[in-house]
Amino acid sequence: MKFISRIALLLLAGWLATPSIASERPNILFVFTDDHAAHAISAYGSKINTTPHMDRIASEGMLFEKCYVSNSICGPSRAVILTGKHSHLNGFFRNGITFNGAQQTFPKLLRKAGYTTAVIGKWHLGSTPTGFDYYDVLKGQGPYYNPPMITADGNGNPVTKPHTGYTTDIITDKTLAWLKNDRDEKKPFMLMYQHKAPHRNWQPGPAHLTTFDDVEIPEPETLWDDYKGRPSAAAEQAMTIARHLSENDLKLNRGPNNLTPEQRKLWEAAYGPKNEAFRKANLQGEELVKWKYQRYIKDYLRCVQSVDDNLGRVLDYLDKSGLAKNTIVIYSSDQGWYLGDHGWYDKRWMYEESLVMPLLIRWPGVVKPGSRNSDIVSNLDFAQTFLDIAGVKSPADMQGTSLVPLFKGHTPKDWRTHFYYHYYEFPGAHSVARHYGVTNGRHKLIHFYQNNEWELFDLKKDPNELQSVYGNSDYKTIQSDLLAELKRLRIHYKVPEEDPVPPKRKRPNQPNRPKKK
Ligand code: CA
After folding, report:
1. Is the torsion defined by CA of 352, 357, 362, 366 positive or negative?
2. Which of 18, 134, 374, 402 could covalently link to 384 via disulfide, CB atoms 3.0 to 4.6 Å apart?
3. Does the predicted TM-score (pTM) go above 0.85?
């Protein structure tokens, strides 16, 4: 009898190890955009647009309220996601350098564990993607129209191919083609479906060139921020709606230079009359800023609308193909973004609008539909989450934590209470000073270390972060607690005392600095 049981156990073990069981591990579809702020998603309470397909993921899954990016800029966020390590360890601490593709990444580990992996769309790490069975990616930022894209030829060498059409549509066409025809159906898949949109400079597609023409978009509360309640950093940037948008950003020039005659015709029909009316009006001062805000925000939202339309196509395909029931769908973006908040566009700051990443997840049978989570989570957690989903143990040198227990509605007792942030790109585009900081979700301490300036915010009393209370005696205990956490986290995450590139000790004079009144 004992012998028979042993045989039965051996047979069972063999059966469990067969690919047919492995293939029942869930597929992962990671939908990722560039610079899409949570407050431009209606599920997050947007007052300026509606995103029905993103909202569908939220209503059929979970919305994370406090997903924080560890370094609020494009390439660095992507590198953190791939490696599960902070910028100072994965080496990609600012844009414009090349990601070391030889290092450990979650796609490599998933592939080793039997997943088929693909990345389609924006890569933006300067390197050729590694760890993927299939890649088809934009060159660098990639244009909004007619993008050249890089894929592997028959010998595995990168080859660039031209395409005609709107980039958001093309990336989706390729995603659907891979799902339908090209993937290895014997394996579960991890597909990174990554849009360029709605990155600057917000060129809408043919379907949305005139969307929002007949409405006024509400202005954010802080459009007219004078930066008075904080030390110098917030005032010394170069990212204001009022003074730093170019003619190209504002579509006051010819538009994209690579359009086909048909695309050109549509573009000119959409912008020509509006630009003529603008020039006739000869707006000045506050009226001109208001006009710039409307032009900027409408173009941004038009690009978001195309992403949402295309996400709808993919969700439809998952339903029709039957893939939906065993496919986890995640929606996120590489960081947040200023929708005119503080008078700005762009990102980079540890302030809420660019710190918060949208994070929505649908996992049928596991995540409770319509649920919300307010724990502090991060892009640092994504790699370990994907590995956990696939049943793969995380390597000890990854620095995040799997979100799978949170998906199931159980927050571990020892879940993080404080979050560490670090931005390095100064000098750099938009002149945002280097800073690091810590937040517990209610209070936030920021150190602009090149000029040794500190800020402390009480997000409950001052959700727009207009008045720093650093040094205020009412906040003495909170300030010292946050400082202690900051020190602890810098040691915990092995942050070096000196930046990888030594900072300039003093920031150069900013020609665009507003005059002190
Ligand atoms: Ca970005």
Report:
1. negative
2. 402
3. yes
